[in-house]
Amino acid sequence: MKKLFLLFGLFAAFAVSGYAQKFALIDMEYILKNISSYETANQQLEAVSQRWQKEVEVAQQEIQNMYKTYQSELVFLSAEQKTKRENEIVEKEKSVQELKRNYFGPEGELFKRREALIKPIQDDIYNAIKEISDAKGYQLVLDRASASSVIFASPRIDISNEVLAKLGYSK
Description:
Blueprint lengths: L1 H17 L4 E4 L1 H6 L2 H38 L5 H26 L4 H28 L3 E4 L16 H8 L4
Parallel strand pairs: 1-2
């Protein structure tokens, strides 16, 4: 009877170990830092963003100057002139808001450029991870950089360098 329980226990242990899942980790920040095209794309986006931000700031400064001029000349203006100046200031504010939305909004130019420059790199990384996962039988690949709940993970399951090698950026 003891042998039967022992045999059944061993069988159950082998069955459970046969269904063991394989996990891997990547560090997306590390991978992206080692891809030169990503750094170049980020620099391009930063330069464009700064240029557009300066353009918006200049327009906002113009509005402030218009308002200060309006305030200083307020006593000399007729009601019709006051209304005209107020409308000009309001129109300028609306145009600046529109400019900000066109450049930095959710459907703005910066978003579109980021999609055009960064998305292909992210897709390449995803495809490399998928190929490595399929080849090595990983059921789950976690990103260490974004998984704040991962307290410790063995460096042996980190496949970041394999992903870089697959992309042609061997370390």
